[in-house]
Write a structure and sequence with these properties.
Length: 217
């Protein structure tokens, strides 16, 4: 079966879906699937198809990213488990994205924009919640702080809701994330709607991406 089309939600429908038992069960299934090594976390976090957007590079994008991400998580795992607040998490995320861009520039001789850098690392942090060595208390805290990986599914899902303030072209959604302010705008929008449903913002990614792809299998 082909690639599923991103769903466009109305605000009312999105709040209802975010608070549904179906989504709660899907999130429990996703985060309950434990992984026992950092390497597994990184490999399963980002599908191989995600790297198809990176072409004509001197090294394989998947290898460069996964090698860096695994090393970075191992080096900073204690820092991750010490995070208690939004400010601390956002600071860690910003620093990690910056380091990834630096590594990409060094290995690939070309720049990785902030939108794609944050998308890749947000996918890894989402999957890190499945790491068996992450304590339950840390997982509970971090789940509330995770940012949503912004891609065609999570961005197009907001098209109707943001029609008065943003032009979202379904053919090239990453153009919506040109500046840090664009990124923050989408994250705040998602957080506000998730707050209405009383669920963590990352549940929106489970709904918009994971459930869409599960239903096509």
């Amino acid at each position: 079966m082909g690639r599923p089309r991103p769903h466009q939600f109305s605000r009312k429908k999105l709040v209802r879906k975010l608070g549904s038992n179906e989504l709660k069960k899907s999130a429990e299934n996703f985060f309950g699937n434990q992984l026992h090594t950092i390497e597994d976390v990184v490999t399963k976090a980002v599908a191989g198809s995600t790297f198809r957007a990176f072409r004509s590079l001197p090294e394989r994008p998947s290898v460069v990213f996964r090698t860096w991400a695994a090393n970075h998580l191992c080096k900073t795992f204690k820092d991750i488990t010490a995070i208690k607040s939004v400010r601390e998490y956002d600071k860690y995320l910003k620093r990690s994205s910056s380091l990834l861009c630096k590594e990409w520039k060094c290995k690939m001789k070309t720049s990785l924009d902030d939108g794609r850098s944050l998308k890749l690392f947000n996918l890894v942090m989402k999957k890190l919640m499945c790491f068996s060595k992450l304590k339950k208390t840390n997982r509970t805290t971090l789940l509330k702080l995770l940012h949503v990986p912004l891609d065609s599914y999570t961005i197009v899902g907001l098209k109707k809701i943001l029609s008065d303030t943003r032009i979202i072209r379904t053919s090239d959604t990453m153009r919506c994330i040109q500046t840090p302010e664009d990124y923050i705008f989408f994250q705040k929008c998602i957080s506000k709607i998730a707050g209405e449903a009383k669920v963590p913002p990352i549940y929106y990614d489970i709904l918009a991406w994971d459930m869409a792809h599960t239903k096509t299998k």
